[in-house]
Design goal:
It is a single chain. This protein has three domains: 47 residues, Uridine Diphospho-n-acetylenolpyruvylglucosamine Reductase, domain 2; 111 residues, Uridine Diphospho-n-acetylenolpyruvylglucosamine Reductase, domain 3 (2-Layer Sandwich); 107 residues, Enolase-like, domain 1 (2-Layer Sandwich), CATH 3.30.390. The protein has twelve helices and 14 strands. The strands form four sheets. Strands 4-5-10-6-7 form a five-stranded antiparallel beta sheet, with helices on both faces. The chain has a four-stranded antiparallel beta sheet with strand order 11-12-13-14, with helices on both faces. Strand 4 and strand 5 form a beta hairpin. The radius of gyration is 19 Å and the shape is globular. The mean pLDDT is 95.
């Protein structure tokens, strides 16, 4: 199928993109990697009258360390981010999650910011941002503002972006050296949309107690969900089996899945419990084996 007719405009930097969004209003859509938007247009599920292509922008493609954080520009290709040594060293959960995001051909074109702005509640990158307490920088006619990840994602395919704002970058805290990470994902096939996903990062201090625990789940609510109660139960503990299992139960109690063709709500709840316990144990093993 082919998309409905549309007007094509190209922006050369973020400011020009904002100006075009302001000019055309709700009729316009941003074209970045196109891995989600173009199929939606081909199936007539999206009908923008104007496409604003930002592939020629020069100020939105970067990966850099910044005061204990990793900053990633919105137009950074997912495959570039997956293989970048600075990103992998600072936030090893990123390459681990990206390995589950579609297929290599998708990641070659798909952008970091495009996945975040699309806001699929089962997507890997939004779940990573929520898990690690990331922040997103957006720009509109009045300038820039920063939005915590948990406030950015509002509902399936809905964010806090205004019609004339564009996502510039995201900022994630650098994880302590030696942090163990794990992505556990249930999908029909590798690269498919996650039915349930769990992201975990765990760091143990010299006494074997958890001084950092970050956990989030995707595909089990209207947005990715950070599992604060499970984190609180595990923080400061030796992460024994009983504690991990109790935290996994608390995690399942924190989400509100619905039934669909891929599984019932009760099935998803059980998978959250199973995958949280599995992810925490695997992350502990990851740290103890000395991997990044």
């Amino acid at each position: 199928m082919k998309p409905p007719p549309f007007e094509y405009r190209s922006a050369h930097d973020s400011a020009e993109a904002v100006n075009l969004l302001t000019e055309y209003g709700d009729d316009a859509k941003i074209l970045a990697g196109g891995q989600s938007l173009v199929p939606l247009m081909n199936f007539r599920m999206a009908r923008p009258s104007v496409l604003i292509d930002i592939n020629q922008t020069h100020d939105m493609t970067h990966i850099r360390a910044d005061d204990g954080h990793l900053v990633v520009g919105a137009m950074t290709r997912q495959r570039v981010l997956e293989r970048d040594q600075t990103a992998g060293s600072a936030v090893p959960l990123l390459p681990a999650a990206l390995a589950h995001s579609g297929h290599t051909t998708n990641r070659n074109r798909g952008t970091f910011g495009g996945s975040l702005a699309h806001a699929d509640p089962a997507a890997e990158l939004p779940t990573v941002l929520v898990a690690l307490g990331g922040e997103l920088t957006v720009q509109g006619p009045s300038g820039k503002r920063t939005v915590p990840a948990e406030d950015f994602f509002l509902a399936p395919l809905v964010t806090s972006l205004e019609y004339n704002e564009i996502l510039l970058s995201a900022r994630l805290p650098r994880l302590p050296q030696g942090t163990g990470v794990r992505v556990e994902e249930l999908a029909r096939r590798h690269g498919d949309f996650a039915i349930v996903s769990v992201m975990a990062a765990v760091h143990l201090d010299s006494n074997g107690r958890a001084d950092l625990v970050r956990i989030a789940a995707g595909g089990v609510d209207s947005t990715p969900i950070r599992l604060h109660e499970a984190e609180a139960q595990l923080s400061g503990t030796a992460l024994d089996d009983a504690g991990i299992d109790a935290a996994a139960v608390a995690a399942a109690d924190s989400v509100h899945p619905t039934d669909d063709v891929h599984g019932s709500a009760s099935y998803r709840l059980e998978m959250v419990r199973v995958l949280v316990a599995r992810a925490i144990r695997s992350a502990i093993t990851h740290q103890k084996e000395g991997h990044r």
